[in-house]
Amino acid sequence: MIDFNNKSFFKMKQDPEYGMKVNDLLIPGETIVSSYRSMRDGVVFTNKRIIAVNVQGFTGSKKDYTSLPYKNIVAYSVETSGTLDLDSELEIYFSALGKVRFEFTGRTNIVEIARIISERIF
Questions:
Q1: Has residue 2 been placed in a domain?
Q2: Is the residue at 101 inside a domain?
Q3: 20 to 30 A from 121, CA-CA: which of 33, 58, 90, 104?
Q4: Which domain holds residue 98?
Q5: Burial status of residue 76 (CB atoms within 10 A of its CB: 0-12, 13-18, 19 or more)
Q6: 99 lies in a domain?
Q7: Does residue 76 contact residue 100 with C-beta atoms inside 8 Å?
Q8: DSSP E strand boundaries for 1-116
Q9: Angle at 6 between CA 95 and CA 16, to 5 degrees
Q10: How far are the Cα atoms of 21, 47, 86, 111, 115 from residue 118, in angstroms, in the given order?
Q11: For residue 7, is it within any domain?
């Protein structure tokens, strides 16, 4: 599992093709809603969960997939980009896991991500 306390994800930007990296993990009825990537790592939001992808090693052939079900979210926080700080952030608090933090580029519609999460946890 990804160590979210010591792992810092690079700032991610939306990349619809990145979601294909998790196609083999999807269960029947699960669809990709949105996907984001940094240089190698990424995060995929489906209609059932969030899948964090940590690409490891020199060649990138080793990958760690962490499944974060929406049903385990107890709270979340978004920070939108501003005039001088162009990046946005998402912090999600999971029962039994704790805080997971993702950073996005300023062009990312963080409010849309918050809506996706809200629709699935309420």
A1: no
A2: yes
A3: 104
A4: 13-121
A5: middle
A6: yes
A7: no
A8: 13-14, 32-37, 42-46, 49-56, 62-69, 73-79, 88-94, 98-104
A9: 75
A10: 25, 11, 24, 10, 5
A11: no
CB atoms inside a 10 Å sphere around CB 91: 14
Stated length of the chain: 122
What band does 33 get if pLDDT is binned at 50, 70 and 90? very high
CATH number for the domain that contains residue 50:
2.30.29.50
Amino acid at 99: K
104: its two tokens: 């996005």
Specify the DSSP class assigned to residue 4: T
* Residue/partner pairs of 30-39 with CB below 8 Å, 24 or more apart: 33/116, 34/112, 34/113, 34/116, 36/12, 36/102, 36/104, 36/108, 37/12, 37/13, 38/9, 38/10, 38/11, 38/12, 38/13, 39/10
Whole-number pLDDT of residue 1: 56
Look at residue 45 and tell me whether its pLDDT is greater than 90: yes
